[in-house]
Fold these 2 entries.
Entry 1:
Amino acid sequence: MAEKLIKVEDLKTQFTTKRGLVKAVDGISFEIKKGERVGLVGESGCGKSVTALSLMKLVPAAHNERVFGKIIFKGQDLVPMKDSQLKEIRGKQMSMIFQDPMTSLDPVFTIGSQIMEALGIHQGLKGKESKKRAIELLALVNIPSSEMVVDYYPHQLSGGMRQRAMIAMALSCEPELLIADEPTTALDVSIQAQIIKLVRELSANKGTALLWITHDLGIVAHLCEKIIVMYAGKLVEMADTMTLFENPMHPYTQALLRLAPKLERGKGRMPPIPGTVPNLIDMPPGCRFADRCPKCMDVCSQEPQWMEVEPGHWVSCFLYSKDGKN
C-alpha cells in the first residue's frame, strides 16, 4: 500500500473583509499518497484554488488570511512554518502550476532564466550546466527547438507553449507533489488534451503525486485515480474515480455528472442546477447544498458529518446516516 505523502486535517482558510469573515475553506480533510493522481472538482468559487494556495502557504498576506488545521507533508506540519522553512519545500518538494501562465511568468526575464533560478536555488546548478538542464526540461515537455526557446520571453510564446514552460519550471526540481490549478482552462481543446497527456506521462514516469484542480469532470475521469468534490468551502464526496462515476452518492455530485457533456445528448439542453451557491460570508445553517437539493429533508437544517459509507468512499449527506442522524 502506497505511503501517505500529504495529509490535510480540518483545514480552514478565512479572510477578513469589510463585509465580514469569508470562510473560503471550512474544515476539509483528505490525503494524497505517493505517486497518486487526485482530482479536486467543483463549481467556480467553491474554494478549490484557495485550497491549493493554502497547501503551498501562498495565500496573499494582504488579504488578512488565517489558516487553521494541519497540513502534514512528509511528517511535517506546514501550517506553523515560517517562509524561511517553507523555501526548502516549495519548488523542491512541492510545486504548483498556475491557471494563467502569462501572469505567473515574469515578462522581463527569459523563460530559461526563470527555470534556471529554481535550479540554482534548489539544486545548486549554475552557468552552462544550469542552462543545459533548462533546455532538457523544455524538451521534456515537448517544446520544439528548446535550445532557442530557452532564450525567449513569455510574450514570444503561444498560450500552450507558455503553459508547457510553466510545467517545465514546476518539474525542474522533480517535486514529489505537483499541484495544478486549472492549468488548461484558457487553452483550446487540442492543446488541453496534449497538456493532460503530458502531465499524466510525467507523473507516471517520475512517480510524482498530483492534485489536479478543475471544474471539468471529463478531465479528471481520464487523468485521476481519485476524485474529491467540493462545494461552498466543504468537501461533499470523495472516492476512487470509477466508484464516483458509477455510484455518485451526494446530490451535488449527481448534479455535476448530469451537467457533464455527453455525445448522445445531441443538441438537447443540459439540466441546470437550480438556485445559487451560498454567500461565503453569510452561510446558511446546516447542509450548504440544501437550498438547491431535490432530496432535501428537515434534518438537513443541521450540518452533516464527513463519513465513510463504504471502504474508500466518503460523503457528507444525511441520506446515508442512520435514521437521518450522524
Entry 2:
Amino acid sequence: MDKMIYLILCIVGGFLAASVGVPAGWLIGSIIVGILWGVFRGGLSFDGKLFKIALAFVAANIGLRLDPHIILEIRHLLLPLFFIILLTLTLGYLLSMFLFKKSDLDQTTSFFCCIPGGASEIIGISKEYGADERIVAAFHTVRITFFVLTIPLIVGSFNSTVDLQGNLQTAQFAWMHLLFFPLVIVLTLLLDSKLHIPGGTLLFSIAISFFLSSFVMEVPSSPAYLSGIGQALIGGLVGVRFDKFVLVQLLKVGKITMIIITFFFVSSLLMGVFFHWMTKLPFAISLLGTVPAGAAEMSATSIALDLNPSIVASLHIIRVIILFLALPFLIKIFKSIHKKELMVKDSADRLN
C-alpha cells in the first residue's frame, strides 16, 4: 500500500512542478518527492522491473516520434562522441585515484564509484569485482540525483522560449494508445530478458515502438501527460534511493564526494560545449546527449523539453555500450597501475 501511495505522490509532485513551468517538471518534481520520502520515511524498495517498465514507456514515446534519417545523422556524430567518451573515462579514472587516496575506500570500490555510465549496471556488476556495492550505489545515487536536479534547469534556461510541454501538448489521447504502449512494454521486457545488453531496455523499446508505429499500426502522437507519468515514475524510483544510508555515506566523505561531483559537473558542461563546437548541434542537445547523468533520466528530460530525444537517447545508448565493452580492460589498467604504485611506495618505505 505504501508503494502505491508513494508512486501516486510522485505523479502528483511531477504534475505540480510541470504545471508551474519547471523544466522537466515531471522528472524533477517526482525526484524531490522521492528524496523527501527516502530521507524522512524510507522503507521502500523497488525491483528493477518497475524501472524498466517506466523506461520502456518513456522510450516508446521516442520511438513513436523517431525520424528514420536519424541513423545517418548519428553516423556523423560517432567520432566526436568517441572523443567525449575518452575524456569522460580519463576524468573518471583520475577522480577514482583521488577518491582512493583521500578516503578509506579500497581501490576497486573507488574505481566503480567514479565510472560515469549506466549506474544501475555499474552497481550490479561492481560486487562481482569485489567492490562494496552499497557505497557504489550511494555514490552514484548522489551523482545522478544532483545532475537530474540541475541539468534540466540549465538546459531550460538556454531554451526559455521553448514550450516546456513540447509539441505533444496539442496531441490528444487515443484508444490506440491503450494497445500500443502495453504491447511495446511487454515486447521490450521479453526481448530484454533474452538479450542482456547495456542500455537494452531503452534501445529495444525505441526500436519496437518505431517498427510498430511505422509498419504495423497507425498510432497518433501521444499527449504530454502520458510521457510525463512515465517520467514521474522514473524520477520517483531514482529519488527514493537517496535514503538515510546514502545521506550517512555522503556525510562521511561529504567533502570528497562534493569535490568529485563538482568536477564531473563542470567537466560535463565543458564537454557539452566542446561537443556542440565539433558537431554544430544545439548546446542543449549536446549537453543532454553527453552528460553522464543516466540514459533514462536524460532521455526523459529531452522528451520533456522537446529537444530531439532520438539523438539524445541514441548517444547515451552508444556511450553505455562502449563503456561496458571497455570496462574489463579499464579495471585491469586501474589495478595494474595501483599495484605498481604500491610496490614503489613499499620499496621507498624499506629504503627509509
